[in-house]
Design brief:
Layout (H helix, E strand, L loop, with lengths): L2 E7 L6 H9 L9 H9 L18 E7 L1 H7 L1 H20 L6 E6 L1
Parallel strand pairs: 1-2, 2-3
Amino acid sequence: MQHRLVRIDCSKVTDIHALFAEAFGFPDFYGRNWDAWIDCMSHLDEPDAGLSSTHVEKGGIVVIQLEQAEALKRSRPDLLAALCESAAFVNWRRIEAGIGPILCLSFAS
């Protein structure tokens, strides 16, 4: 199984959606909300969907390494919770559709 590692520096999060849009190459029409994030992240194994420039092969996993996760937990626990819930929803939705999970969160200090 292929995996792709994407590092997100959480030490100075002011706009988490801008951070992810840059890291994953979301399109200009990205809505910068959790529903739009879920849509983009659900299709990381579908390059033709045009929802990101970061891709993984079918059956692969994208590992999101949250660098300085403790800083985010202290400063914006609401964002960390929303991120975890949204990633879980992406995987749940894909599992329900018979596709399989695509996201893994990794926390680094």
